[in-house]
UniProtKB/TrEMBL annotation:
This protein's UniProt keywords: Isomerase, Metal-binding
Species: Neotamlana laminarinivorans
Keyword Isomerase attributed: yes
Annotated protein name in UniProt: Methylmalonyl-CoA epimerase
Gene Ontology process terms (BP): L-methylmalonyl-CoA metabolic process
EC number: 5.1.99.1
Family: Belongs to the methylmalonyl-CoA epimerase family.
Oxidoreductase recorded as keyword: no
Residue stretches making up the VOC domain: 3-131
One Pfam family this sequence matches: Glyoxalase_4
Amino acid sequence: MNKIEHIGIAVKNLKESNILFEKLFGTPSYKIEEVISEGVNTSFFKVGNNKIELLEATNSNSVIAKFIDKHGEGVHHIAFAVNNIEAEINRLKNEGFTVLSNVPKIGTDNKKVVFLHPKTTNNVLIELCEDIKK
């Protein structure tokens, strides 16, 4: 793992949350993106060298909707940048972590992504991200 790629925050209303976080960070969101397969709209902020991703559910079956129903709004996951996501999946499985998918999905911000089950990471949802080479 190279660095923290971003921190994901589950929100009920992306438009209202964008206004709040724009005031907090003193900068507007640089990208809004929909991920139909995951049932989310996302908004990204750059804060120094760091990125924050806001996630809003687009339907009641989305993982974010279920998260908010159970936990309320707040930190959803921490994402780490990796050079080779397939190698990291294998390495982490061999170390005893539960990977939620054997094959990475296409995520936001031009990334391949996979998540680790929080039961194997002290109840923290961990996302691995690899830039898709163009």
